[in-house]
Structure formats: C-alpha cells, structure tokens
Amino acid sequence: MSVKILCKSYGINEGVLDLRDKRISELPESISKLISLEVLYLSHNRLTALPESIGNLINLKVLYLNHNQLKNLPESIGNLVNLTYLDLHKNQLTSLPESIGNLIRLKELYLNYNQLTTLPKSFGELVNLQLLILHNNQLTSLPKSIFNIKSSLLINTNSYEINNLLADTEFLIFSYLNKELTNLPAGLKEIWIKDEKQNLNHKLPFGCVIKYF
Q1: Percentage of the chain surpassing pLDDT 90?
Q2: What is the mean pLDDT of residues 147-162?
Q3: pTM reported for the whole predicted model
Q4: Contact (CB, 8 A) for 67 and 44
Q5: For the chain, what are the domain ranges?
Q6: What sign has the CA pseudo-torsion 69, 74, 80, 81?
Q7: Element (H, E) at 154
C-alpha cells in the first residue's frame, strides 16, 4: 500500500495519522514523505519490520507500535529525536539498536511483553526518561548505564526476572522487591533498590551490598 493510498484512505488530521487495526503488514518506504507527522498510531496491525525511512519522520513526538509482530527495529529509529512517547509492548523484539539512546527527549517507553534478553548500554543516554515498562521479557539484569538517568525514573514492579541469573552478574536493579531473593550469583556485588523504606532480610552473597537510587 502506497503512502498516497494510506493518506487518502485514513487522512492526516493536524499532524496525526491513525492507522490502528488496519491489518497492515508492511509500511512503504515513502512513509518518509510525511515529515509533518507528530503522532502516528500503528498499533494492532501485522507489522514484522519497519522501513529505514521511518527515521525521516523527525517531527514525530508520539509513536504507537504496540500489538504487532516486530522482531527488531531499524537503526534509523534513533533519528526520531523529538519522540517523547514510544509504545512497543506486545511485539516479538529480541533486542534494541544502540541508536535508541539518541531519543533524549523520550519520557515514556513501553517494552513489556517482548522477548528482550538485554538492553543496550546506550539506555543511559535517555536522560529524560520517567517511565520504563519492562515486565514479561527475558531480562535478568539492566545495563549499569541506567544510573545516568535522573532519579525520577520509575521502573515498574517485576521489571525483570530474578531467576536463572548469569553466573557473572555483578549488579541488579529493582524498583521494588516483593519477594525474597534466592539463588543469587556468588559474584554479585551490588543490589540497587528504588525504595529506601524496605526492610531487607535477604541472604546476600559475601561482599554484596544494597544501595538506593
């Protein structure tokens, strides 16, 4: 489907293009022509990939891609430097490009219900991020660079699993602990927790300390 047909069929209203639930399986490269777009709804479709040209939508502020079948994102996603809201939940993402760290205006990022095993180190560049939703992935830890993000960042409860941690895991980050930590790696050095009011009586490996952020 060409971008002309998309626009003619669904229209752009004051910088907003709503393509929710249209059974779209592929976006045309010519989507790049819609440079005036500020809000783009693409949720509840059948997308498995995004064209590199989506990075030309430099005025985009809000992007909904939830409930698709995306397995990865193009490096050009990092060109969307005006994004403040990005919803990618319920896809099939296994990784994220390092370029996502370029989205320095991003305030809310939804990544829950994917297949992520790690997050890129560039996450620490998302200095304005206030809400990060990560549950129902395959994460066992977060990149230490996440400490670069200001203290208002909220990582939702149960952001990642605490079982089957890698033997060389040195630190863990939690927004809240609602169950006892068990089977922690012997080499674990630091556990960072958002809430200082919690009374922690967990059995920690020798030399491991609890810190707050």
Answers
A1: 46
A2: 59
A3: 0.76
A4: yes
A5: 1-161, 166-213
A6: positive
A7: strand 154-155
Q: Sheet holding 171-174: strands in order across?
A: 171-174, 190-193, 209-212
Mean pLDDT over the full length of the chain: 82
How would DSSP label each residue in 39-102? EEE--SS--S---GGGGG-TT--EEE--SS------GGGGG-TT--EEE--SS------GGGGG
The pLDDT tens digits of the residues spanning 36-95 come to 999 999 999 999 999 999 999 999 999 999 999 999 999 999 999 999 999 999 999 999
In the block, residue with structure tokens 């089957």: 164
Q: Which amino acid is at 12?
A: I
Give the pLDDT confidence of 119-138 residue by residue, as tens digits.
999 998 998 988 888 888 88
1-161 to CATH, choices 3.10.310.10, 1.10.3720.10, 3.40.220.10, 3.80.10.10: 3.80.10.10
The rounded distance, in Å, linking the Cα atoms of 205 and 188 is 7
* Cα gap 59→84, rounded to integer Å: 11
**Residue 55 vs residues 32, 65, 148, 157, 190: alpha-carbon distances, Å:** 7, 14, 25, 32, 38
Residue with the two structure tokens 């994220």: 96
Confirm if 88 and 65 have CB atoms less than 8 A apart: yes
Angle at 191 between CA 91 and CA 117, to 5 degrees: 20
